[in-house]
Design brief:
The complex is a heterodimer of chains A (244) and B (107). Chain A is mostly helical. Chain A is 70% helix and 0% strand. In chain A, helix 4 packs antiparallel against helix 5 (78-89) and helix 8 (120-132) packs across helix 10. Chain A is globular. In chain B, helix 3 (71-86) runs antiparallel to helix 4 (89-106). In chain B, strands 1-2 form a two-stranded antiparallel ribbon. At the A-B interface, helix 2, helix 3, helix 4, helix 5 and helix 6 of A face helix 1, helix 2, strand 2, helix 3 and helix 4 of B.
């Protein structure tokens, strides 16, 4: 594991800002679509664009924001909303754990700034970039915060009149799905990973049909990763392309 | 300007969202990890991505039910092939969006 700053010639901020911002484009596209939709719904639920922006800034987690708005309009109280948000966003625990391997030795301050921007999308893209590209914590941090600005901007814009933008134009609703598909392919580094991905995916589908909410993501992925370690440790991975 | 009770809810939501994002980074990035745990973490991205994608493609509605005839799924298969063949994020995203857009005009 290299510390964040091992590449002396590339640890300058200007190039990191450029790379990070440019690298965030698929997420920005996706957040534009979802953010506008969220803004429209939140505004219909009676929230002012300023209140929408405040939530996007302080929470910055799409699905829990949708749920919170529907709970608010149903008259739910503080604890119900906060506890629901906690359970919905608990999956970030796994993503931050996984990302910790790439930001070793970073100061608490920068880690805290980086943690704020960990989402499903930024996690997937940063992990792929850390593995494949000349990527470091600065680029990852800039990517996170670029995506965050896109989220705040598009949710507020949605609150001001997103209904005037045609829904589904240019297939923009599919941007994040296509990005996830491609990033999943990047993660498949041998037959072993195919087994884990299929196990996790099928378990997620089954669980999602049985239990409400999104706990299926957490349960399916931890179970599949655990199965992967057990298989690998039991020696079944011989010749199966296991290992990284 | 923003009502206090709304602000409190949002702050509460922010805290419980931030802590799970923050603690593992702070705690794990300073420690040597046992090998099995490093392996486990190495499998997490593939597992999470699958767990995110599969239900998006084959389930719908509230309460969720299985639906194998969704454009999301039809478009995913060629998108997957493009991702494997090109290994290009930009190419895959643009292809997927384009095909989904076209599919939306016919379905």
């Amino acid at each position: 594991m290299r510390p964040g700053d091992s590449q002396e010639n590339r640890n300058d901020w200007p190039s990191a800002i450029k790379d990070g911002m440019l690298g965030a484009w698929p997420i920005c596209l996706g957040y534009l679509a979802i953010g506008l939709a969220f803004g429209v719904i939140a505004q219909k639920a009676g929230l002012h664009p300023l209140e929408i922006g405040c939530m996007s800034l302080l929470v910055y987690a799409g699905s829990s924001q949708f749920i919170a708005v529907s709970m608010l309009s149903a008259g739910a109280g503080f604890f119900a909303i906060v506890i629901t948000t906690f359970t919905v966003n608990l999956r970030h625990l796994l993503m931050s754990s996984s990302l910790s391997r790439y930001v070793r030795g970073l100061s608490h301050g920068w880690l805290s700034a980086f943690a704020y921007g960990v989402t499903d999308e930024s996690f997937a893209l940063n992990v792929a970039n850390f593995r494949q590209r000349d990527w470091d914590w600065r680029r990852a941090l800039v990517l996170n915060h670029t995506a965050n600005l896109a989220w705040i901007g598009s949710t507020v814009a949605g609150g001001y009149g997103g209904q005037f933008i045609p829904a589904g134009a240019f297939g923009i609703d599919y941007a994040l799905v296509a990005m996830f598909i491609c990033l999943l392919i990047f993660q498949i580094r041998g037959f072993f990973y195919v087994v884990i991905a299929l196990t996790s995916g099928l378990a997620a589908v089954l669980l999602s049909l049985i239990i409400p909410g999104n706990a299926y993501i957490f349960i399916a992925s931890t179970a599949a990763a655990t199965l992967g370690v057990i298989l690998k440790r039991s020696g079944l991975s011989q010749g199966m392309g296991g290992g990284s | 300007m923003i009502p206090t009770d709304y602000l409190l809810i949002v702050i509460g939501m922010g805290v419980v969202t931030y802590v799970p994002r923050w603690l593992p980074l702070l705690y794990l990035s300073r420690r040597g990890l046992p090998e099995w745990f490093a392996e486990w973490l190495d499998f997490i991205p593939a597992a999470i991505l699958s767990a995110l994608i599969f239900p998006l493609l084959v389930t719908t509605g509230e309460p969720r039910h299985l639906d194998l005839l969704r454009p999301e799924l039809f478009v995913a298969i060629p998108t997957l092939i493009v991702a494997i063949k090109t290994r290009s994020l930009a190419g895959t995203v643009i292809f997927g969006m384009g095909l989904y857009w076209i599919a939306g005009k016919f379905i």
